[in-house]
Amino acid sequence: MRSLSIRTYLLLSYLALILLLTVGVWAIAEPGMLLPGHFLKTAAAQETPRPQVRFIPQWQPQAQFAGYYVAYEKGFYRERGLEVEILRGGPEWPPSEMLNGGRADFGTLQLAAGIVRRARGLKLVNVCQLAQHSALMLVAKKSSGINNPQDINGKKVGLWGEDFQGQIDAFFRKFNLKVQTVPQGTTLNLFLRGGVEVASAMWYNEYHLLLNTGLNPEELTTFAMADYGFDFPEDGIYCLEQTIKDRPQVCRAFVQASIAGWQYAFAHPEEALDIVMKYVDAAHVPTDRVHQEWMLEHLRTMILSRGPGGPIGGLEREDYYRTAEALKMDGTIKAIPNFSQFYHDCANADKK
Amino acid sequence: MPIKNRSLASQLIFFILTSVAVIFLTASIYSYYASEEGIVRRASENARHLSHETVFRIEVILRGVEKISSNLAATLEHLPWQEQNLVPLLRTAVSNNKELFGLGIGFEPYGHNPKSLYFLPYVFRSGDQLRMKMLGGESYRYFYLDWYQIPRELGRPLWSEPYFGAGNVIEATYSVPFYREKDGRREMAGVVSADISLMWLKDIVSAVKIYKTGYAFLLSQNGMFVTHPEQRLIMRESIFSLAEARNDPRIREVGRDMIRGGEGFVPIPRSLIGKRSWLYYAPVPDTGWSLGVIFPEAELFADAHRLLRRSAAVAVLGLGILAAVIIVISRRITRPLRLLARKTADIAHGDFTATVPETGTREIAHLAGSFNRMGRELTDYMEKRDFIRDTFGRYVTPEVVKRLLESKEALEMGGETREVSLLISDLRGFTALTADMEPEEIIAFLNRYLGKMIEILLDYRAVIDEILGDGILAFFGAPEPLKDHPVRAVACAMAMQAAMDGVNSLNEADGMPILEMGIAVNTGTVVVGNIGSERRSKYSVVGAHVNFASRIESFALGGQVLISAATYERVKDLVQIGDVLQAEMKGIPGKSTLYEVRAIGSPHNIQLKTRRQTLVTLPEPVRIHLLRMREKVVVSSNEEVWVTHLGETAVRVAFEGDLVEWEDVRLQMLNRKGAPVPGKVYGKVTQVQPRAAGGLEATIRFTSVAPEAYQIIRRTLDAAAPPEAR
User: Fold this and answer.
1) Rounded distance, CA B476 to CA B458, Å?
2) Per-residue pLDDT averaged across A133-145, rounded?
3) Nearest CA in chain B to A212
4) Phi-psi domain of B504 (left: phi exceeds 0; alpha: psi -120 through 50; beta: other)
5) Mean of pLDDT values over B580-609
6) First-residue to last-residue Cα distance in chain A
């Protein structure tokens, strides 16, 4: 038998190469394509329309919502059969109103805000409690003469709005402070220019921003809500009661994918930051990677409060009641909503 | 190796090069820093001008915009407004001012129309067109936006922080609140806001070119980068986030000063742009922004660095050359020194004639000259010293010279008592014999005699005390003690007498008189020492024994050695005695015994020639004249004297008149006519006795005989006596 000529060899090689490239491109384009059963799954998925889930973060794109962005980008939602649209958040789009208006299926809220809303009639439920601690604080410049809570009396205070006021109102009541409330937006410029003497800030966000405008820590007086007995858990995932009744699997899928996203983000911070910055750039949010790094790091302490390997996403009964009691005591709410009605644990329920 | 022992070259190199290097280093460092300082100052000046110029250009545009808003606000405050008026107003303003991107008026809630919460007419550019849009609504609640809220709360116009506007363009807004009177109160009615794109800002700032890689940037009031060559920093990072990222608090401090409206020229650490640089910053007062201009240090100081590098290279080269030159020169300097060292060794070994060439540097030539002079003077000195010693030795016995040169004590005055043997010699009738001679002849004649005698005396280690004319006074046994000084003295005397034959032969050959010498030796205790004073002294001898020796000498006949009894006692075993005399001495009671020595035994072994003592009887007496002498002066004359017996050394005469023993006389021989012939004969009367034939006869011993007289005597003797008798 005559051995193959060189030309034939080359031809066969080229064909093999092209085949490989095609498969490769395909594989990259569709991760998991090479896994058995993928084609069947995709086909099946394409036949039935995937449920649309709209998610509204409570603020503009930043590392505060890294877990969700990561879960989306890494396909955790898709894996669980969800097609998620992450909306752009901000002070103009309070999540409670978005949920109420049906413009979003899931949103993030602070626990106090959720309780207050529920107490005032909005049928919200908490499906996952991520941040176990409070990062809320009031900030003032020492040069304006504010060194302790009493000094805030009569001053202009920048506040973000209902969804972020639970603890702060309790704080004002505790120290019997009468203040001039001024709405605070996404920037601290009003505070920086001296338009208000006290500003609202998150320890993981605005505080660092202040430092990065040239203010030194020793030039600022901070009142962390956690230090004054208001260490309420903050960020959690909420939806309307109707949603959890109608589509419990979707809730569970969303929550679990989101938690997976958070875990991945903490395990791969650099990659998570890359993803976050993508969203940041798209939304033209004036921030930088270093700031987001700070933010992600501080969120880690708030979310992984039970240790790196511990469970996340659960709302403890005592934390709930502690928060609710405080709100009731200072008159923000009249009655404490029932816990089991308020909280539906989707984080640790069985996967489908 | 200690510094002292290193070679001149290495010492010079070490010190000079170190000093030069230090000096150069100091100078370089100083000049570098001075030039750096100068450069910094100049750069600061340039930067200041540049910055102010840039700021001015920025402010020109900003001010233009401010005026529009302010004027509009003022118009709104004074004129009633309606929608128809407002929009045309806005259109005109925007179209007239090309810097404006958009102009809007936001009213307080229900401020314009009681039915309308929001009212915000906004005119803006879209391509070439102007468009109007009514803003404000649920999706645009402008009351809480910075451009509205801040001027509202602060009550004054201000520039906003730059932000991203439509189409991804960086914009800033100038907001002016306007007011109206309501119920007597002045309350805010709304805010006029003018939006401008900051792209032109980028153009102005990026036009600032600094060397190769320097640049300018702009910070907002919050420290955010508004323009920067690095696109990714713009509106994303602030100088503080950069400081945080680079972990450098110094950058943060600079940023703080910048946003506080400071101005300055400061060094920036490497962390900011990856290399050391300088930053000039100046405020843009209207907006509260800050302009920064970066000067990379390497480029700023490029010239100075190059200068430094080149100077260093020159310095190294220079030092190298200097080292080589030093080596060469030091070798040239030390070559004569090395030669000098060798020649010095020669001199140390006694060769004072060693010389070095007087060449080279002035100092070395000087040294060489001194060295050679030293050699010459050492030679002179040595010669002088030898001369002195020799001359000294001529005048003083070598023994004494040696003693004097050896110890200073020898110069001291004072003496000691010592037993010595004295030797006194004298030439018989020298004065008379030489009366007719010339002084030079006399000295030559005398010195021949003295030369021989002195030689002998020195051989026998005598100290020659005195040479008084033809007489010699010497002594043995001082200053060096000599145990055998009596023997020595006698032997010396014998040798001196024995040498007279030789001297006389020479004298006779020269036509000079024959000499006869008498020597006396005495032994006794005397005082020896430096007699005189420090100015003039002599190592001499004093005592009775000296006088005694002198007396003995007067009894000695020519060719005779007479010794005292004291001496005899000491030498009797060695000597052969001839006559023994009993002499009467002045001042000494009784007679003194004197011994004539004819020979001395070993080791000296000297025997005196037996002189023709025999007196030959003359066939007939010869008449002579006799002159009696006292102290060498003729006192009387006797013509009745006849020679009866004649010998070589003596004569017996018969005489009339007086003659005393030991008397000095002079004999005059007569010719046939009875007149005295020339030729003096001197003698001493040794014996006077009566004649057998009656009368007196005397034996007269010759003390000196003139040559002519000696001829006559010999002729006479030869005629009278057979030769065998000699």
Assistant:
1) 10
2) 92
3) B240
4) alpha
5) 84
6) 59
Rounded mean pLDDT, B274-287: 89
Highest mean pLDDT among B109-113, B206-210, B277-281, B315-319: B277-281
Which pLDDT value is given to residue A278?
93
Could you give the CA distance from residue B557 to residue B560 in angstroms, rounded to a whole number? 5
CA distance A240 to A105: 7
B507/B427 Cα distance (integer angstroms): 14
CB B419 within 8 A of CB B524: yes
Amino acid at A73: E
Inter-CA distances, B192 with B112, B171, B548, B680, Å = 13, 16, 160, 171
Secondary structure of residue B7 in the 3-state scheme: coil
Beta carbons within 10 angstroms of residue B68's beta carbon: 22
Cβ within 8 Å of residue B602, ≥6 positions away: B574
CA distance A144 to chain B (A): 15
Residue A199 has pLDDT above 90, yes or no: yes
Residue B347 tokens, joined: 């001199």
Tell me, what DSSP letter sits at residue B604?
Answer: T
What is the rounded radius of gyration, in angstroms, for the C-alpha atoms of chain A? 24
> To the nearest whole percent, how much of chain B has pLDDT over 90?
20
Q: Specify the pLDDT at position B280.
A: 92
How distant is the Cα of B157 from the closest Cα of chain A, in angstroms?
A: 12
Strand ranges in B183-276 using DSSP code E only, listed in sequence order = 185-197, 215-219, 225-227, 264-268
Q: Model pTM greater than 0.80?
A: no
Q: At A330, list the tokens.
A: 């200072």
Map residue A85 onto helix, strand or coil.
strand
Query: How much is the mean pLDDT over chain B?
Result: 84
Q: Is the pLDDT of residue B407 over 90?
A: no
> Looking at the partner chain, which of B143, B222, B241 has a beta carbon nearest the beta carbon of A291?
B241
Count of other CB atoms within 10 angstroms of residue A117: 25
Say if residue B479 is preceded by a cis peptide, omega within 30 of 0: yes
Mapping DSSP to helix (H, G, I), strand (E, B) and coil, where does residue B313 land? helix
Strand partners, B126: B129
Per-residue pLDDT, A33 = 46
B153: nearest CB among A91, A196, A211? A196
| Side chain identity, residue B525 | T
Q: DSSP string covering B68-91, please?
A: HHHHHHHHHHHS---HHHHHHHHH
Chain A residues inside the 8 Å CB shell of B158: 193
ipTM: 0.70
Q: Is A148 exposed, middle or buried (0-12, 13-18, 19+ CB in 10 A)?
A: exposed
Q: pLDDT of A265-288, one tens digit each?
A: 999 999 999 999 999 988 888 788
